[in-house]
Amino acid sequence: MARNDRDRIGYALDVIGDQWTLLVLQQAFFGVRRFSDWRDTLGVSEPVLAARLRVLVEAGVLYRRPYRDERRTRDEYRLTDAGLELWEILVAIWAWEYRWVRRRDAELPVLVHDLCERTCDPPLTCGRCGEVVTARDTAAHRAPARQVRDVTTPRRFRRSGWDSVANRPLLFFPETMTIIGDRWSTAVTAAAFLGVRRFSELERELGIRPSVLSQRLGQLTEVGVLRRRASENGRDVRYGLTEKGMGFFPVFALIIDWADRWLDDLPSSLTIVHRACGEPLTPTLTCDRCGVRLERQQVHFARPDGRPATAGSEHPQDLRPSPMAR
Q: Please, what is the end-to-end C-alpha distance for the chain in angstroms?
């Protein structure tokens, strides 16, 4: 499907909702620029890496910049302005995994706010009024005649080939990918945020086969994102978000906000309003220690003992998101 035929949220999810793409972006923020460095750090095959880089360039997230090595001119890849703005989404994914995924708090580095020099666990806040925002504090307004099925389209990449990072916790986000790495799982979770609860309602809203819906509901229930509740007679079964599922709201909110700002040539299907101030939500991340809005150049990741974190045992990288030249 051509870009001009896409919903902006669907297009953003198509670009971001892939394990390898997220890791390519993560390493770009850690200073990786060259094809061979991504390949060696991630252990990803060259065809898979080339496909992800091509998509990110096509989406305007990366751009090519020629450089000369000892033999010939090659291209390195740098983040565009739109790409740089994805940093909050990556931090929100880290925060959700750190808070909600079992044992991840022992595996993942901590986030340090350089202004107050303290570790932080950033809440989502409203950029207009400054209040902390959860999904319960918002209302979602859909464009006329738009359904969740209009946002979700088949992903261009299959979920495979992750063996090289499966045992490296800094390079693997299996539960995040359970939610946004699959078209139907994303659709089911989004529908739950919109208040769709019953199996039959989900089936109609998503245009999904019952067998596929049952499989995705089971998967999301197994990882603790959804909770299954049946009536006493067992005939009325509903699926609602758990606290862990509700905790994923910042990731969705930041993806939607990024799409609204950088893909505004595409149609919009959803607006999130912060009830407290009555304005469209401008999601931001704030330091829970000093209350200051986080800026990309003012945070970095570190081990709990203060040493720089590493992205992988073979190729250590300082995980400080750098200001970086274009």
A: 30
Instruction: Evaluate whether residue 323 is within a structural domain.
Output: no
Question: Could you write out the DSSP letters of every residue in 229-276?
Answer: EE-TTS--EEEEE-HHHHTTHHHHHHHHHHHHHH-TTS---EEEEETT
Return the CATH number at 159.
1.10.10.10
- Full residue range of the structural domain in which residue 214 is found: 3-302
Asked if 299 and 109 touch (Cβ cutoff 8 Å), the reply is no
How many C-beta atoms lie closer than 10 Å to residue 271's C-beta? 14
The predicted pLDDT at position 155 comes to: 65
8 A C-beta contact, residue 245 and residue 189: yes
Task: Say if CB 269 and CB 7 are below 8 A apart.
Answer: yes
Lookup: tokens for 141:
């307004």
* 296 vs 285: CA distance, rounded Å: 10
Measure Cα distances from 241 to 180, 188, 280, 309 in Å: 15, 10, 23, 33
Q: Assess contact for 182 and 215: CB atoms under 8 A.
A: no
Structural domain count, the chain: 1
Looking up tokens 């990366």, which residue turns up? 62
Please work out, in degrees rounded to the nearest 5, the angle formed at the alpha carbon of residue 200 by the alpha carbons of 199 and 205.
100
d(CA 248, CA 164): 26
Give me the residues paired with residue 79 across strands. Answer: 62
Q: Is the pLDDT of residue 161 over 80?
A: no
- Verdict on whether the full-model pTM lies above 0.85: yes
Q: What is the pLDDT of residues 3-36, one digit of tens each?
A: 556 789 999 998 988 889 999 999 999 899 999 9
Taking alpha carbons only, the member of 264, 252, 245 closest to residue 124 is 252
Instruction: Tell whether 176 is covered by a domain.
Output: yes
Q: Please check whether residue 317 lies inside any domain of the structure.
A: no
Q: Please give the structure tokens belonging to residue 87.
A: 């940093």
Coil, strand or helix at 179: helix
Q: 318 in a domain, yes or no?
A: no
